[in-house]
Amino acid sequence: MFDTARRRFRDVTMIFAAAVAVAAMPACTPSTNAPERAGADRGGGIEVVAQKRLDERAVDLTIRSTALPEDAQVRLLTPTGWHNRTSGRTWPVLYLLPGGDGDHTGWTTDTAVADIARLRDVLVVIPGMPMFGFYSDWYAGGPNVESFHLDHLIPLLERDFGASGKRAIAGISQGGYGALKYAAHRPGMFGAAASYSGWLDPLRRPEVVLGAAGFLGIDGSALWGDPVRNRAQWMANDPYHLADNLTGIPLYLSSGDGSPGEFDPPNLPRESLFPEIDRLADEFPDSMVDPTEAVMGESTRLTADRLRASNATVTTHFTTGTHSPPYWNDNFHRSLPILLDALGIR
Fold first, then answer.
1. Does the pLDDT at position 159 exceed 50?
2. Interval 247-275 mean pLDDT
């Protein structure tokens, strides 16, 4: 899905190839040579059909849910003692949401999350979702990603996998959007939230949302409806317009501005993506080479201002830079004290 060196959601040719591949794939079935069987929660519409231990910490779950058209993958980074846990023992949980491809492996590939000593007493959960799922229950005929994550997955993890009710959430790109939206939709569910290069005000640029969906062969209007006729539906899924629901927890927001920054190679050329975002180039400085991060940065800054006007507790880190993993890893480390404090980890 992503360029292995930069792993960018905006690498549109790779996205398109992955979208075609995903569309052609049959429903996921357990491997015959590795996974352990796991229990089911048929009353809650969710079943763990496979569980595979990858190493001393990492466990991958294959989950079937009535909220999704296909099986989903969820990666767990387990805390010390988890594999020998006794009945009733639980750990605080850090939910880490991937970008628009929904790849449950991206966080462990692109960041040092698995090597952070302070997370050895935390259950880290990285839930996948369908391509361009947008952490939403789709308005017309799409996946119910939000219901899967919040109403199916979290109760399952708390019942069978040692997750406690002490939670924090963070995400990259579309996952940053999801982290803030989930916290806004479920006040009290998460003790802190962080967004790294998140698309936090999609209603400001609805043509970009619809254009990106169209490039992938997806009917973007099925997400939240038409942005004019169904404006209320768009607002109900837009963190900028949900700012008043985010005043009760600490937040961390970061983004670049689309111009080359400290983690970018020299002489980085401007990229052309798809028409709806390419035509925005004149609205940004000539130094802008990454339209994806320019749009993410714009929405993040506007949302930070809106949150402060609502008296929310917001920490921000705005820099030059592109939509790429080195910036996300850096900001993940910067935000860790906020996330861990919410989990009671000192």
1. yes
2. 95
Q: Smallest Cα–Cα separation from 323: which of 185, 181, 212, 233?
A: 212
CA distance 154 to 167: 10
User: Mean pLDDT, the chain, as a whole number?
Assistant: 88
Query: Is the pTM of the predicted complex or chain greater than 0.70?
Result: yes
87 vs 340: which has the higher pLDDT: 340
User: What integer is the mean pLDDT of 310-333?
Assistant: 98
- Residue type at 331 in one-letter notation: N
259 touches 289 (CB < 8 A): yes
Domains and CATH numbers, the chain: 12-342 (3.40.50.1820)
193-196 and 250-255 beta bridge pairing: parallel
Single out the residue of 68, 89, 57, 67 nearest to residue 158, CA to CA: 89
187, 197, 180, 240: which is closest to 332 by C-alpha?
Answer: 197
Side chain identity at residue 52, one-letter code: K
104: pLDDT confidence band, cut at 50, 70 and 90? very high
Tokens 């990603």 sit at which residue? 145
Name which of 324, 207, 308 is nearest 253 in CA terms.
308
Cα 246 from Cα 149, distance rounded (Å): 19
Residues 236, 185: Cα–Cα separation, whole Å: 9
